[in-house]
Amino acid sequence: IWEDISAQTLNNLANAYSSLYGATKQKKALANSIETYERVLKVLSRERVPEDWVLVQNNLAGSLMMLGETESGNETLERSIAAFQAALTVWTRDANPQRWAIVISNLGNAQGMLAKRKNDIDLLRTAIASLDGALEVQTQEKDGLDWAWTKREAGDAWSEMARFTHDEADLKRSVASSQEALKVYTLARTP
After folding, report:
1. Which residues have C-beta within 8 Å of that of residue 64, sequence separation ≥ 6?
2. For 123-171, what is each residue's pLDDT tens digit?
3. Are 56 and 100 in contact (CB under 8 A)?
4. Are 114 and 147 in contact (CB under 8 A)?
5. Number of helices (H) and strands (E), helices first, in the chain?
6. 105 and 131 in contact (C-beta within 8 Å)?
7. Are 186 and 146 in contact (CB under 8 A)?
């Protein structure tokens, strides 16, 4: 339950802009989403309403990641990573393991995108560690699609690692992660 109804309404508006982007791929909708989440964060205090703040922080991070994926520069992805890391200060592994796993998985995805763009093997290792952390909490039985998404992202990250290392073992890790994801991502379930 939100303490500030105007912040909740703004968050809902930002979510609607984000959904509009998902439906139309209009970057303006995503930019509006980011701008609106940032307005909400000016109203909310992490100290006063941490659960509301972290929800908006995580939403902002996701919108930044989507926008960063469409851009050639690194700044938006870097902002996304910072926003996911900020969310992890509230949604810790001990306090909220399920939400932590989702956020750290998204963080790993953003780190992986940036690592590929910057040709940065150390950041790619960090991305893989983030994804592996999520998979220490997520299970196929309990988390289904979230687990499969993380497995798929791990497969992509290991494939990218193999590009750096030329190590067959990294390619085998990529194949194994992708095959695991396909246990959930079936044509019948996710056409």
Report:
1. 34, 76, 77, 79, 80, 83
2. 999 999 999 999 999 999 999 999 999 999 999 999 999 999 999 999 9
3. no
4. no
5. 8, 0
6. yes
7. no
Straight-line distance from the first to the last Cα atom of the chain, in angstroms, rounded to the nearest whole number: 36
Q: How far apart are CA 72 and CA 11, in angstroms?
A: 28
> 18, 31 in Cβ contact below 8 A?
no
For residue 64, what are the CA distances in angstroms to 39, 69, 108, 166, 179?
A: 14, 8, 14, 32, 29
CA 28 – CA 143 distance, rounded (Å): 33
DSSP assignment of 48-90, as one string? T-HHHHHHHHHHHHHHHHHHHHHSSSSHHHHHHHHHHHHHTTT
Q: How far is residue 74's CA from residue 146's CA, in Å, rounded to a whole number?
A: 26
